[in-house]
């Protein structure tokens, strides 16, 4: 069965079309054109702002003309992650999907259900001939995943609705009414590469960490998953303290909002240390498996000899970098004191990359800090800066984005809860999320908005293990329709 044949067909047929359109963050041109064509095909009023955000509008159905308008919102970009052995061009290739039991998955890449399924639910609602609803506005924003650019640049006065339903959540039967704020940190360590002399006396080693689950740096940060960058650096520190090590290559992770799944390094050591490093690695693997093996069942770390490199990072620089990365915090830092079970503050050592600019060769380190308390977000930002400044000559921070303070007395929340209870005879959970939603930015420009966030069940978002529950999507579609009809 193809996914466009699944029920509810009006949702999954649109989701299938979305998976066929490339839409990396900051390169959403193709999905913007697809959305514009969709609006024209269905005779929907639509506008595109300077940022690339699209708003579609549909008048209220008969009997709902005097009701306050409702905004449905999702982002159009997706996280583009793939396994190392998968050949895929995210700028041009469609996502190859398949059905596995109750789940839709992608072949070796992220699925893009975050937030493609939110888009599909919105488009199914606004094109329905039977759904009764107040005046609808569907807001599709650009570049949520790497900068919240669309939400930042959304213009004042372009939205008319007083209530907003965000469809970027990933948990069945849960209503989110708050989210963490966040800020990114970027560090650079410039260096002049050294030519490797006396190659015959040194052995080149390729170290690889893989098989980790990765996942969302907010949603999954408290689940005990390994970070490939931290695991690799910890071993490099042990080698550095035990033998004469030169680092020729260091690479790990990709995206600031994804926990690093894979990392690698090429080092050289004295040729007579070959057996010593193998013994060290075997002991180290056993240690890591003991620490995280119950969660990371597919963790691997390998060592193999490789071609001796011509250049390496100066030893003093590489030692300072390894120490700084080892000292740099990663993971959950504090739990919320007001909402049980909610992570309050965390940081993600996202990526380590070798690059070049006008100053020459450098190592780039990306991290992402989150907190539902603004002061703690900035405290953690400074902590990360202090650690990375031990090695890096440049440390800068992004603009950051605000959190969304919960409103337990929200009228929209009450309608959303009752709709779920009526449909499924169960109480939905009301929560805040330790991830960045665009809602906080909407409130800065539209402070009167009453907002909730819902969505179907997903697992493994921001990783090639991403999967979308088919049955939960059907429930979410029923839920959304009931909320709109009740409003």
Please tell me the CATH architecture of the largest domain by its name.
3-Layer(aba) Sandwich
CATH class of the largest domain: Alpha Beta
Which range best describes the helical content: under 10%, 10-25%, 25-40%, 40-55%, 55-70% or over 70%?
Answer: 25-40%
Rg over CA atoms, rounded to whole Å, is 24 Å
**Fourth CATH level, the homologous superfamily of the largest domain:** Zn peptidases
Q: Please state how the strands of the largest beta sheet are arranged side by side.
A: 1-2-6-3-7-21
Oligomer: single chain
- What is the number of helical segments per DSSP (H or I, 4+ residues)? 11
Considering the chains and any ligands shown, give keywords for the structure.
single chain; 487 residues; alpha+beta; Aminopeptidase; Alpha-Beta Plaits; 2 domains; 6-stranded mixed sheet; 5-stranded antiparallel sheet; 11 helices; elongated
Polypeptide structure, described:
- This protein is an alpha+beta fold.
- It folds into two domains: 3-180 and 403-486, Zn peptidases (Aminopeptidase, 3-Layer(aba) Sandwich); 183-397, Alpha-Beta Plaits, CATH 3.30.70.360.
- It contains eleven helices and 23 strands.
- It has a six-stranded mixed β-sheet with strand order 1-2-6-3-7-21.
- It is elongated and about 85 Å long.
């Amino acid at each position: 069965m193809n996914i466009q044949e699944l029920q509810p067909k009006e949702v999954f047929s649109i989701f299938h079309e979305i998976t066929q359109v490339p839409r990396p963050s900051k390169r959403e041109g193709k999905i913007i054109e697809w959305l514009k064509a969709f609006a024209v095909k269905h005779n929907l009023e639509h506008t595109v702002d300077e940022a690339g955000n699209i708003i579609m509008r549909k008048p209220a159905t008969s009997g709902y003309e005097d009701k306050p308008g409702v905004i449905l919102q999702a982002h159009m970009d997706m996280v583009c992650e793939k396994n190392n052995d998968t050949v895929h061009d995210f700028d041009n290739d469609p996502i190859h999907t398949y059905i596995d039991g109750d789940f839709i998955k992608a072949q070796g890449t992220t699925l893009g259900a975050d937030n493609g399924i939110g888009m599909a639910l919105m488009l199914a609602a606004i094109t329905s001939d039977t759904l009764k609803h107040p005046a609808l506005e569907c807001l599709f924003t650009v570049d949520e995943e790497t900068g919240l650019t669309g939400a930042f640049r959304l213009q004042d006065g372009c939205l008319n609705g007083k209530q907003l339903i965000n469809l970027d959540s990933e948990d069945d039967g849960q209503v989110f009414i708050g989210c963490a704020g966040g800020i990114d940190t970027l560090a650079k360590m410039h260096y002049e590469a050294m030519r490797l002399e006396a190659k015959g006396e040194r052995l080149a080693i390729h170290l690889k960490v893989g098989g980790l689950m990765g996942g969302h740096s907010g949603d999954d940060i408290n689940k005990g998953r390994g970070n490939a960058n931290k695991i690799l650096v910890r071993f490099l520190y042990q080698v550095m303290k035990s033998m004469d090590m030169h680092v020729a290559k260091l690479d790990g992770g990709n995206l600031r909002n994804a926990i690093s799944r894979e990392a690698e390094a090429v080092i050289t050591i004295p040729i007579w240390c070959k057996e010593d490093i193998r013994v060290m690695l075997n002991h180290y693997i056993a240690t890591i498996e003991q620490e995280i093996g119950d969660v990371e069942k597919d963790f691997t770390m390998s060592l193999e000899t490789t071609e001796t490199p011509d250049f390496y990072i100066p030893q003093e620089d590489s030692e300072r970098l390894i120490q700084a990365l080892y000292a740099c915090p990663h993971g959950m830092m504090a739990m919320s004191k007001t909402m049980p079970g909610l992570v309050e503050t965390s940081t993600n050592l996202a990526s380590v990359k070798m690059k070049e600019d006008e100053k020459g060769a450098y190592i780039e380190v990306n991290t992402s800090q989150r907190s539902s308390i603004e002061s703690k977000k900035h405290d953690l930002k400074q902590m990360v800066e202090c650690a990375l400044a031990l090695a890096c000559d440049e440390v800068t921070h992004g603009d950051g984005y605000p959190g969304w303070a919960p409103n337990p007395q929200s009228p929209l929340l009450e309608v959303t809860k009752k709709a779920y209870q009526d449909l499924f005879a169960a109480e939905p959970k009301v929560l805040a999320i330790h991830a960045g939603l665009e809602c906080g930015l909407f409130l800065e420009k539209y402070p009167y908005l009453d907002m909730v966030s819902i969505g179907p069940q997903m697992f493994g978002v921001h990783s090639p293990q991403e999967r979308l529950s088919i049955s939960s999507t059907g429930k979410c579609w029923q839920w959304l329709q009931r909320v709109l009809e009740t409003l």
